[in-house]
Amino acid sequence: MIIIMESSANEAQIKEVIAEIRDAGLKEIRLSGAAKVAIAAIGREQDLNQERIKGLEGVEKLMEIQEPYELVSREHRPEGSIIRIKGVEIGGKALTIMAGPCSVESEDQFRRIALEVKAAGATILRGGSFKWRTSPHAFQGLGLEGLMITKKIKEEVGLLSATEVLDPRQVEAVCQYSDILQVGTVSMQNYPLLREVGKSKMPVILKRGKWATYNEYLLAAEYIMAEGNENIILCERGIRTFVTETRSTIDINAIPYLKEKTHLPIIGDPSHGTGMRHLVPAISRAFIAAGADGLIIETHYDPEHAKTDADQTISTEAFAILMGEIEKIGGAVGRTI
Protein backbone atom coordinates (compact mmCIF):
# COMPACT_ATOMS: atom_id res chain seq x y z
CA MET A 1 0.00 0.00 0.00
CA ILE A 2 1.37 3.41 -1.01
CA ILE A 3 -0.14 6.54 0.50
CA ILE A 4 0.34 9.62 -1.68
CA MET A 5 0.28 12.92 0.16
CA GLU A 6 -0.90 16.18 -1.37
CA SER A 7 1.87 18.52 -2.52
CA SER A 8 0.74 20.97 0.17
CA ALA A 9 0.86 18.39 2.99
CA ASN A 10 2.81 19.57 6.02
CA GLU A 11 5.00 17.59 8.37
CA ALA A 12 2.31 17.28 11.04
CA GLN A 13 -0.09 15.69 8.52
CA ILE A 14 2.61 13.29 7.35
CA LYS A 15 3.34 12.27 10.95
CA GLU A 16 -0.36 11.62 11.54
CA VAL A 17 -0.41 9.16 8.64
CA ILE A 18 2.74 7.47 9.95
CA ALA A 19 1.12 7.14 13.38
CA GLU A 20 -1.89 5.38 11.83
CA ILE A 21 0.42 2.94 10.04
CA ARG A 22 2.35 2.15 13.22
CA ASP A 23 -0.82 1.80 15.30
CA ALA A 24 -1.96 -0.90 12.86
CA GLY A 25 1.28 -2.81 13.46
CA LEU A 26 2.82 -2.00 10.07
CA LYS A 27 6.15 -0.44 9.16
CA GLU A 28 6.31 2.81 7.23
CA ILE A 29 8.86 3.83 4.62
CA ARG A 30 8.94 7.42 3.49
CA LEU A 31 9.68 7.59 -0.22
CA SER A 32 11.22 10.60 -1.88
CA GLY A 33 9.55 12.11 -4.91
CA ALA A 34 9.78 15.08 -7.22
CA ALA A 35 6.90 17.05 -5.71
CA LYS A 36 4.93 14.85 -3.32
CA VAL A 37 5.69 12.68 -0.33
CA ALA A 38 4.72 9.01 -0.62
CA ILE A 39 4.56 6.68 2.35
CA ALA A 40 4.69 2.91 1.94
CA ALA A 41 2.87 0.81 4.53
CA ILE A 42 4.67 -2.52 4.85
CA GLY A 43 2.94 -5.48 6.47
CA ARG A 44 -0.60 -6.83 6.71
CA GLU A 45 -2.48 -4.21 4.72
CA GLN A 46 -5.82 -5.63 5.85
CA ASP A 47 -5.02 -4.36 9.34
CA LEU A 48 -4.97 -0.76 8.10
CA ASN A 49 -8.07 1.40 8.52
CA GLN A 50 -7.95 2.59 4.94
CA GLU A 51 -11.09 4.68 5.15
CA ARG A 52 -9.72 6.53 8.13
CA ILE A 53 -6.43 7.21 6.36
CA LYS A 54 -8.25 8.45 3.25
CA GLY A 55 -10.05 10.98 5.43
CA LEU A 56 -6.92 12.43 7.02
CA GLU A 57 -5.93 15.94 6.01
CA GLY A 58 -3.12 16.06 3.48
CA VAL A 59 -3.80 12.62 2.01
CA GLU A 60 -4.37 12.68 -1.74
CA LYS A 61 -4.95 8.97 -2.44
CA LEU A 62 -4.11 5.41 -1.54
CA MET A 63 -2.51 3.22 -4.19
CA GLU A 64 -2.88 -0.55 -4.34
CA ILE A 65 0.25 -1.70 -6.18
CA GLN A 66 -0.54 -4.67 -8.40
CA GLU A 67 2.99 -6.06 -8.52
CA PRO A 68 4.48 -8.06 -5.62
CA TYR A 69 7.34 -5.53 -5.49
CA GLU A 70 5.55 -2.41 -4.22
CA LEU A 71 8.46 -0.13 -3.38
CA VAL A 72 10.44 -0.52 -6.61
CA SER A 73 7.37 -0.52 -8.86
CA ARG A 74 7.08 2.24 -11.45
CA GLU A 75 3.35 2.47 -10.64
CA HIS A 76 3.93 5.01 -7.89
CA ARG A 77 6.89 6.80 -9.49
CA PRO A 78 6.28 6.87 -13.26
CA GLU A 79 8.90 9.56 -13.81
CA GLY A 80 11.66 7.16 -12.73
CA SER A 81 14.40 7.61 -10.16
CA ILE A 82 17.74 9.35 -10.50
CA ILE A 83 20.46 8.26 -8.09
CA ARG A 84 22.67 11.20 -7.14
CA ILE A 85 26.12 10.52 -5.69
CA LYS A 86 28.44 13.46 -5.04
CA GLY A 87 27.56 15.29 -8.23
CA VAL A 88 27.16 12.21 -10.45
CA GLU A 89 23.64 11.28 -11.61
CA ILE A 90 22.67 7.75 -12.58
CA GLY A 91 19.38 7.46 -14.44
CA GLY A 92 19.30 10.96 -15.91
CA LYS A 93 19.98 12.05 -19.48
CA ALA A 94 23.72 11.49 -19.19
CA LEU A 95 25.01 7.93 -19.43
CA THR A 96 27.10 6.72 -16.50
CA ILE A 97 30.18 4.71 -17.39
CA MET A 98 31.92 2.71 -14.67
CA ALA A 99 35.25 1.14 -15.52
CA GLY A 100 38.30 -0.41 -13.95
CA PRO A 101 39.98 -3.73 -13.26
CA CYS A 102 38.19 -6.81 -11.98
CA SER A 103 40.52 -6.76 -8.97
CA VAL A 104 42.64 -4.18 -7.23
CA GLU A 105 46.10 -5.74 -7.57
CA SER A 106 48.41 -2.98 -6.35
CA GLU A 107 48.47 0.77 -5.80
CA ASP A 108 50.43 1.43 -8.99
CA GLN A 109 48.16 -0.77 -11.07
CA PHE A 110 44.98 0.84 -9.74
CA ARG A 111 46.34 4.39 -10.12
CA ARG A 112 47.34 3.88 -13.75
CA ILE A 113 44.00 2.35 -14.70
CA ALA A 114 42.09 5.06 -12.82
CA LEU A 115 43.93 7.81 -14.67
CA GLU A 116 43.38 6.15 -18.05
CA VAL A 117 39.64 5.46 -17.61
CA LYS A 118 39.07 8.99 -16.31
CA ALA A 119 40.86 10.44 -19.34
CA ALA A 120 38.56 8.36 -21.55
CA GLY A 121 35.43 9.73 -19.85
CA ALA A 122 34.48 7.29 -17.07
CA THR A 123 33.06 8.87 -13.91
CA ILE A 124 33.08 5.84 -11.58
CA LEU A 125 36.04 3.55 -10.88
CA ARG A 126 35.28 -0.13 -10.33
CA GLY A 127 37.65 -2.56 -8.64
CA GLY A 128 37.19 -5.55 -6.36
CA SER A 129 38.90 -6.07 -3.03
CA PHE A 130 36.89 -9.19 -2.10
CA LYS A 131 36.40 -11.75 -4.86
CA TRP A 132 34.06 -14.71 -5.27
CA ARG A 133 36.14 -17.47 -6.88
CA THR A 134 35.07 -20.98 -7.86
CA SER A 135 38.31 -22.42 -6.50
CA PRO A 136 39.33 -21.68 -2.88
CA HIS A 137 42.94 -21.65 -4.09
CA ALA A 138 42.45 -18.79 -6.58
CA PHE A 139 43.28 -15.15 -5.86
CA GLN A 140 40.56 -13.87 -3.49
CA GLY A 141 41.42 -10.16 -3.60
CA LEU A 142 43.52 -7.93 -1.34
CA GLY A 143 40.79 -7.43 1.24
CA LEU A 144 41.28 -4.45 3.55
CA GLU A 145 44.49 -3.48 1.77
CA GLY A 146 42.51 -3.26 -1.47
CA LEU A 147 39.90 -1.04 0.18
CA MET A 148 42.61 1.31 1.43
CA ILE A 149 44.12 1.50 -2.06
CA THR A 150 40.68 2.15 -3.53
CA LYS A 151 40.02 5.08 -1.20
CA LYS A 152 43.44 6.60 -1.76
CA ILE A 153 43.36 6.37 -5.55
CA LYS A 154 39.75 7.47 -6.07
CA GLU A 155 40.40 10.59 -3.98
CA GLU A 156 43.74 11.24 -5.70
CA VAL A 157 42.30 10.90 -9.21
CA GLY A 158 38.88 12.42 -8.55
CA LEU A 159 36.50 9.57 -9.33
CA LEU A 160 33.75 7.83 -7.39
CA SER A 161 34.36 4.16 -6.61
CA ALA A 162 32.27 0.98 -6.64
CA THR A 163 33.32 -2.09 -4.64
CA GLU A 164 31.67 -5.50 -4.27
CA VAL A 165 30.64 -6.68 -0.84
CA LEU A 166 30.23 -10.43 -0.26
CA ASP A 167 29.18 -10.74 3.36
CA PRO A 168 26.98 -8.73 5.76
CA ARG A 169 30.00 -8.41 8.05
CA GLN A 170 31.92 -6.53 5.34
CA VAL A 171 29.31 -3.82 4.72
CA GLU A 172 30.43 -1.40 7.43
CA ALA A 173 34.07 -1.55 6.35
CA VAL A 174 33.36 -1.18 2.64
CA CYS A 175 31.12 1.83 3.35
CA GLN A 176 34.12 3.59 4.89
CA TYR A 177 36.25 3.23 1.78
CA SER A 178 33.94 3.20 -1.25
CA ASP A 179 31.12 5.39 -2.59
CA ILE A 180 28.99 2.58 -4.03
CA LEU A 181 28.43 -0.96 -2.80
CA GLN A 182 28.04 -3.76 -5.32
CA VAL A 183 26.06 -6.95 -4.75
CA GLY A 184 27.18 -9.57 -7.25
CA THR A 185 25.16 -12.15 -9.12
CA VAL A 186 25.82 -14.97 -6.64
CA SER A 187 24.64 -12.75 -3.76
CA MET A 188 21.38 -11.53 -5.33
CA GLN A 189 19.30 -13.67 -2.98
CA ASN A 190 21.60 -13.40 0.03
CA TYR A 191 18.84 -11.81 2.08
CA PRO A 192 20.91 -11.01 5.21
CA LEU A 193 23.36 -9.16 2.93
CA LEU A 194 20.54 -7.33 1.12
CA ARG A 195 19.05 -6.20 4.45
CA GLU A 196 22.43 -4.99 5.71
CA VAL A 197 23.08 -3.09 2.48
CA GLY A 198 19.61 -1.59 2.83
CA LYS A 199 20.29 -0.41 6.38
CA SER A 200 23.53 1.25 5.24
CA LYS A 201 21.58 3.68 2.98
CA MET A 202 24.64 3.61 0.68
CA PRO A 203 24.17 3.58 -3.10
CA VAL A 204 24.24 -0.02 -4.31
CA ILE A 205 24.61 -1.80 -7.64
CA LEU A 206 22.46 -4.93 -7.52
CA LYS A 207 23.42 -7.44 -10.20
CA ARG A 208 20.82 -9.86 -11.50
CA GLY A 209 21.37 -13.47 -10.50
CA LYS A 210 22.30 -15.60 -13.50
CA TRP A 211 19.28 -17.82 -12.72
CA ALA A 212 16.81 -15.09 -11.73
CA THR A 213 13.47 -14.22 -13.28
CA TYR A 214 12.53 -10.55 -13.52
CA ASN A 215 10.17 -10.85 -10.55
CA GLU A 216 12.83 -12.54 -8.41
CA TYR A 217 15.28 -9.81 -9.34
CA LEU A 218 12.94 -6.96 -8.48
CA LEU A 219 11.95 -8.63 -5.21
CA ALA A 220 15.66 -8.75 -4.30
CA ALA A 221 15.75 -4.98 -4.86
CA GLU A 222 12.62 -4.74 -2.72
CA TYR A 223 14.54 -6.27 0.20
CA ILE A 224 17.04 -3.41 0.03
CA MET A 225 14.41 -0.70 -0.30
CA ALA A 226 12.32 -2.20 2.51
CA GLU A 227 15.17 -1.19 4.83
CA GLY A 228 14.83 2.42 3.70
CA ASN A 229 17.54 2.52 1.01
CA GLU A 230 16.24 3.97 -2.26
CA ASN A 231 19.70 4.34 -3.82
CA ILE A 232 19.57 1.17 -5.92
CA ILE A 233 21.08 0.70 -9.38
CA LEU A 234 20.07 -2.45 -11.21
CA CYS A 235 22.60 -4.24 -13.40
CA GLU A 236 21.88 -6.79 -16.13
CA ARG A 237 24.91 -9.09 -16.44
CA GLY A 238 23.57 -12.03 -18.42
CA ILE A 239 21.88 -15.29 -17.49
CA ARG A 240 22.79 -18.96 -17.66
CA THR A 241 21.22 -20.81 -20.61
CA PHE A 242 22.01 -23.87 -22.72
CA VAL A 243 24.66 -21.80 -24.54
CA THR A 244 28.13 -22.79 -23.34
CA GLU A 245 30.28 -20.90 -25.83
CA THR A 246 30.02 -17.64 -23.85
CA ARG A 247 30.18 -17.11 -20.10
CA SER A 248 26.54 -15.97 -19.99
CA THR A 249 23.74 -15.07 -22.37
CA ILE A 250 23.01 -11.35 -22.45
CA ASP A 251 19.31 -10.65 -21.93
CA ILE A 252 18.82 -7.41 -23.85
CA ASN A 253 15.06 -7.79 -23.27
CA ALA A 254 15.72 -7.02 -19.60
CA ILE A 255 16.55 -3.38 -20.25
CA PRO A 256 13.25 -2.20 -21.79
CA TYR A 257 11.18 -4.67 -19.76
CA LEU A 258 12.58 -3.56 -16.42
CA LYS A 259 12.30 0.08 -17.48
CA GLU A 260 8.55 -0.49 -17.78
CA LYS A 261 8.25 -2.27 -14.43
CA THR A 262 10.50 -0.31 -12.07
CA HIS A 263 11.52 3.28 -11.44
CA LEU A 264 15.10 2.21 -10.67
CA PRO A 265 17.90 2.97 -13.14
CA ILE A 266 19.55 0.01 -14.86
CA ILE A 267 23.03 -0.43 -16.30
CA GLY A 268 24.59 -3.24 -18.34
CA ASP A 269 27.66 -5.40 -17.68
CA PRO A 270 29.06 -6.55 -21.04
CA SER A 271 32.18 -8.05 -19.43
CA HIS A 272 30.55 -10.73 -17.28
CA GLY A 273 27.72 -11.03 -19.77
CA THR A 274 30.03 -12.33 -22.48
CA GLY A 275 33.25 -13.52 -20.83
CA MET A 276 35.10 -12.59 -24.03
CA ARG A 277 36.83 -9.27 -24.50
CA HIS A 278 36.26 -9.14 -28.25
CA LEU A 279 32.48 -9.22 -27.67
CA VAL A 280 32.45 -6.44 -25.07
CA PRO A 281 32.28 -3.47 -27.51
CA ALA A 282 29.34 -4.86 -29.50
CA ILE A 283 27.31 -5.74 -26.40
CA SER A 284 28.14 -2.37 -24.85
CA ARG A 285 26.67 -0.65 -27.90
CA ALA A 286 23.61 -2.91 -27.75
CA PHE A 287 22.97 -2.07 -24.09
CA ILE A 288 22.98 1.66 -24.81
CA ALA A 289 20.76 1.28 -27.87
CA ALA A 290 18.27 -0.71 -25.76
CA GLY A 291 17.98 2.10 -23.22
CA ALA A 292 20.46 1.25 -20.45
CA ASP A 293 21.45 4.13 -18.19
CA GLY A 294 25.09 3.19 -18.30
CA LEU A 295 27.70 0.42 -18.30
CA ILE A 296 30.14 -1.23 -15.93
CA ILE A 297 33.19 -2.51 -17.82
CA GLU A 298 36.33 -4.38 -16.81
CA THR A 299 39.47 -2.84 -18.27
CA HIS A 300 43.22 -3.07 -17.67
CA TYR A 301 46.34 -1.67 -19.38
CA ASP A 302 47.64 -5.26 -19.63
CA PRO A 303 44.47 -7.39 -19.75
CA GLU A 304 46.18 -10.65 -20.66
CA HIS A 305 47.98 -10.56 -17.30
CA ALA A 306 45.10 -9.40 -15.11
CA LYS A 307 44.91 -11.58 -11.99
CA THR A 308 41.16 -12.19 -12.41
CA ASP A 309 38.77 -12.27 -15.38
CA ALA A 310 41.56 -11.69 -17.90
CA ASP A 311 39.59 -13.19 -20.79
CA GLN A 312 36.78 -10.64 -20.52
CA THR A 313 38.90 -7.59 -19.68
CA ILE A 314 39.47 -5.09 -22.48
CA SER A 315 42.54 -2.89 -22.72
CA THR A 316 42.32 0.71 -21.56
CA GLU A 317 43.18 1.67 -25.14
CA ALA A 318 40.16 -0.29 -26.42
CA PHE A 319 38.04 1.28 -23.69
CA ALA A 320 38.92 4.77 -24.92
CA ILE A 321 37.85 3.82 -28.45
CA LEU A 322 34.64 2.28 -27.12
CA MET A 323 33.76 5.49 -25.29
CA GLY A 324 33.68 7.33 -28.61
CA GLU A 325 31.31 4.71 -30.03
CA ILE A 326 29.07 4.87 -26.96
CA GLU A 327 28.84 8.64 -27.30
CA LYS A 328 27.57 8.32 -30.87
CA ILE A 329 24.97 5.68 -30.06
CA GLY A 330 23.91 7.53 -26.94
CA GLY A 331 23.31 10.63 -29.04
CA ALA A 332 21.09 8.63 -31.39
CA VAL A 333 18.81 7.64 -28.48
CA GLY A 334 18.80 11.02 -26.77
CA ARG A 335 21.57 10.42 -24.20
CA THR A 336 24.85 12.19 -23.51
CA ILE A 337 28.08 11.22 -21.75
TrEMBL record:
Residues 87-327 form the DAHP synthetase I/KDSA domain. Keywords: Transferase. Pfam families: DAHP_snth_FXD (PF18152), DAHP_synth_1 (PF00793). GO terms for molecular function: aldehyde-lyase activity; transferase activity. One of its GO terms (biological process) is aromatic amino acid family biosynthetic process. It comes from the Bacteria. SUPFAM superfamilies: Aldolase. Gene3D superfamilies: Aldolase class I, Phospho-2-dehydro-3-deoxyheptonate aldolase, domain 1. Residues 1-67 form the DAHP synthase ferredoxin-like domain. This is 3-deoxy-7-phosphoheptulonate synthase.
